[in-house]
Design brief:
It is globular, with a radius of gyration of 14 Å. By secondary structure, the protein is mainly beta. The protein has one helix at 86-90, and strands at residues 11-15, 19-23, 25-31, 35-40, 43-58, 63-75.
């Protein structure tokens, strides 16, 4: 049996801590003006800052651009590529 899942490379470019381009996004967990929590091909990714906005996002390509004042980029669990189920959240 052949795996037909198309993997997208994950990459990130930050310009002057004001604009960020991210590729390889598989899902968005949550977002507000202080934090954007994403899932990438390489696991969880959280962007923290102030006045954060998702400017563009393409579901087809997995690309996203973020603007605002970027303070931190934090990688989480490498094995998580999507949100936890309700049961998964209870036992985490």
């Amino acid at each position: 049996m052949q795996d037909t899942t198309i993997r997208k490379d994950h990459g990130m470019i930050i310009e002057n801590r004001k604009k960020m381009s991210v590729s390889g996004i598989t899902d968005v967990d949550s977002f507000d003006e202080k934090a954007i929590c994403l899932y990438t091909e390489l696991g969880e990714l959280t962007v923290q800052g102030r006045e954060l906005h998702i400017d563009t996002m393409s579901v087809e390509t997995g690309d996203m651009t973020i603007s605002g004042e970027i303070w931190a980029v934090i990688y989480g669990d490498r094995d998580r590529r999507g949100p936890l189920s309700v049961l998964g959240k209870l036992f985490r």
